[in-house]
Amino acid sequence: MDKKVKKIDRAKIIKKSAEELLFLMGSKAEVEVAKDKENDAFLVNLVTTDETGLLIGRHGETILSIQAVLGMIVKRKLGEWVRLILNVGDWREREEIHLKELASQTAARAKETQEPQALYNLTPAQRRVIHLFLSADPEIETESQGEGKERFLTVRKK
C-alpha cells in the first residue's frame, strides 16, 4: 500500500512542479502526468494549442531544456532522481519516427558500402533510440564513440 501512495505522491509533485515552472515561464499550457511502466519513467505531457512551437523550440532544444530543469526541481523535492519524459503535442512520436528512418537509411548505407557510417550531433536519448531500433537487425552493430559534445554513433555491418 505504501508503494502505491508514494507513486501517487510522485506524480502529484511532478505535476505541481511542472505547473509552477510553466507559470514562471509565462506559459498557459496544461500539465498531464502518467506513469510509463515500460520505460520506468513519468510521462509529462504539456497540452497547448498556441504555444506548441514555442515550448518545443528549434530542434527540440526548448523542450529538452524544460525537461532538464523540471528533472532538477523534482530531484530537489523528492530527494532522488526520477526519469521524466516531457512531450508537447506529438513531438516525441514524430522525433522517434524521424530517428528510426535515419537509422534504417544509415544501416542500409553501411550494408551497401561495407563502410562504417557515423551519425553526429545526437543527444544521448536520440542515440539510445537508434541503438535500440538497430539492435533488432542481426547484420548491423552500433557503437557510441567519443566524449561529451564530441560523442557520435557509428553504424557498421557485422
Give the structure's gist in a few sentences.
This protein has 158 residues and is α+β, with helices and mostly antiparallel strands. It contains 5 helices and 6 strands.
Overview of the molecule:
By secondary structure, the chain is an alpha+beta fold. The protein has 2 domains: 2-89, 2-Layer Sandwich (GMP Synthetase, Chain A, domain 3); 94-157, R3H-like domain (Ribosomal Protein S8, Chain: A, domain 1, 2-Layer Sandwich). It has 5 helices and 6 strands. It has helices spanning 2-25, 52-56, 61-78, 91-113, 124-134, and strands at residues 30-36, 41-47, 84-88, 117-119, 140-145, 152-157. The strands form 2 sheets. A 3-stranded mixed sheet has the order 1-2-3. It has a 3-stranded antiparallel sheet with strand order 4-6-5. The longest helix has 24 residues, at 2-25. The termini are far apart.
Question: Which SSEs are present, and which pair or pack?
Answer:
Layout: H1 2-25, E1 30-36, E2 41-47, H2 52-56, H3 61-78, E3 84-88, H4 91-113, E4 117-119, H5 124-134, E5 140-145, E6 152-157
Parallel strand pairs: 2-3
Antiparallel strand pairs: 1-2, 4-6, 5-6
Helix pairs in contact: 1-3, 4-5
